[in-house]
Every structure is written in structure tokens, then in C-alpha cells.
Design brief:
Layout (H helix, E strand, L loop, with lengths): L3 H7 L10 H9 L2 E5 L4 E3 L7 E16 L2 E8 L4 E2 L1 H6 L6 E14 H10 L1 H27 L2 H15 L5 E3 L4 H7 L4 H10 L5 E4 L2 E4 L2 H8 L3 H4 L4
Antiparallel strand pairs: 1-6, 2-6, 3-4, 3-5, 3-6, 7-9, 8-9
Helix pairs in contact: 4-5, 6-9
Length: about 230
């Protein structure tokens, strides 16, 4: 059970914005708020959706596997939920999720989530927003994969990461390069070659550390577009 202090803190999350106090109370009554170490598998493809998972801190990798192949589908950042459609439709998960770094996860029982959606229009709207965010993310990724080369995809990811970390042009890749390669739809060796090609654009990579010495040159290569690259759009 959640402590009163935890309930008070978690009730302020965006997913509860505008909801009736009793809705939030009922949702948190049977909820779990746990810290997970890196590598823990939270859900598996094909399992029933018993909880709606919300990343409070840390990062979670969504991935899928088939035969001997595996691919990263998405990386969920704090204050977003994942695989919401399975919860809403009471269907099995279409992909798996594991913790990329030590993370705190809020888990809301699916039965309580569906009841709250039926009884509180504000909460139903929040869930609809989460599903819309996930859908638009998939469309952006599809456009990114189909319309850009591997080098252009990497350049855009680096430009976005630079902006995300404050625009200082020095930052660390926050997870393993194999995960980044899979997230961008390329093999690790292709990612390695792409990093090598970026030397011509004054991008220096040493291990996980990245230095963008000529941001304008990188942006000319990346050609970011708001309808492909804005995570809030």
C-alpha cells in the first residue's frame, strides 16, 4: 500500500489532472509505487495487462522479439505511461518492457483504470491523451525510418538530445549504443559507421560522450522538422 505522503505526492501527476479527488483516491488505493533496478522486465509480450504503468523517474525500453531477432520499439521517459491500449481494451501486450536505468514506476490496477475512465470524464481524457501521444510517436518513428537515411536519423537524434540536455553541445548517450542503434532502426555496426561519418560534421564521439563542435553543420545534415521530430507535437 502507498503511504499517505506518497499518495499526496503522486496525486499531483499530470495523469490525474482535473480528476475528482475520489477518482484519484480509488486509483491509488490499490496502486504500487516501486523502484526497479536496471534490466528488470516489467511486462512480457502476450501477457495480460494487469496494470497501467507510469514512469515516475528513470527510463523504460519497449521492445519486441521474433525468432532470434529483437528490436527496440520506444524508450519511455518520465511522466509517461506505456502500452496503454492493452489496458483500455483488456488485451494482451503486443510488446515487452524492461527498465533501462534505476526507475520508479507507478502501477495502477487495470480494473480501477477502466472503472475510473467510465466514471470520470477528466481521467478518460487523460488516458485518451496518453494513447494519442503513443500513436503520434509511432507515426513520427515510421516517417523517420522510411524517409531518412541512417545518418540523417542519427543526426536528428543527436540534435534533439543536445537540445534536451540544455544545448551545451556536450552530453552523454544515456543508454547502451546497442539500444540506440535498435531505437534508430539500424544494426550496431551501421551506427558505428554513422558515428564515423559524423566526424566530417565536427561531431566527436568517445565512448558514450558526444561533443558537437559545429552545431550548425549538424543541423544542416539533420534538417529537423516539427512534424517528425517534435516529441510534443
Amino acid at each position: 500500500m502507498l503511504r499517505e505522503s506518497e499518495q499526496a505526492e503522486l496525486s499531483g501527476l499530470q495523469i490525474f489532472s482535473g480528476c475528482r479527488p475520489e477518482t484519484v483516491s480509488d486509483l491509488l488505493k490499490g496502486a504500487f509505487h516501486q523502484k526497479f533496478p536496471e534490466g528488470v522486465e516489467l511486462v512480457k509480450t502476450g501477457e495480460s495487462a494487469d496494470f497501467l504503468h507510469l514512469v515516475v523517474s528513470g527510463r523504460v525500453e519497449l521492445y519486441a522479439s521474433y525468432l532470434d531477432r529483437e528490436s527496440t520499439i520506444d524508450i519511455i521517459e518520465p511522466l509517461h505511461s506505456f502500452i496503454v491500449a492493452a489496458v483500455v481494451m483488456d488485451l494482451p501486450y503486443l510488446n515487452s518492457a524492461r527498465v533501462l536505468e534505476p526507475s520508479k514506476i507507478l502501477m495502477l490496477p487495470t480494473s480501477a483504470v477502466r472503472t475510473a475512465m467510465a466514471e470520470d470524464a477528466a481521467f478518460a481524457s487523460r488516458i485518451a491523451e496518453e494513447m494519442a501521444i503513443a500513436y503520434r510517436s509511432v507515426i513520427r518513428d515510421l516517417k523517420n525510418q522510411k524517409l531518412r537515411s541512417s545518418l540523417e536519423r542519427l543526426a536528428n537524434w543527436l540534435a534533439h538530445r543536445d537540445e534536451e540536455t540544455g544545448g551545451g553541445h556536450r552530453f552523454a548517450i544515456p543508454f547502451d549504443k546497442k539500444v540506440l542503434a535498435s531505437r534508430l532502426g539500424m544494426a550496431p555496426e551501421v551506427l558505428s559507421r554513422a558515428f564515423g561519418s559524423l566526424v566530417a560534421y565536427d561531431v566527436i564521439v568517445k565512448g558514450a560522450e558526444v561533443e558537437i563542435r559545429d552545431p550548425a553543420s549538424l543541423l544542416r545534415l539533420a534538417k529537423p522538422h516539427p512534424l517528425m521530430d517534435d516529441p510534443e507535437g
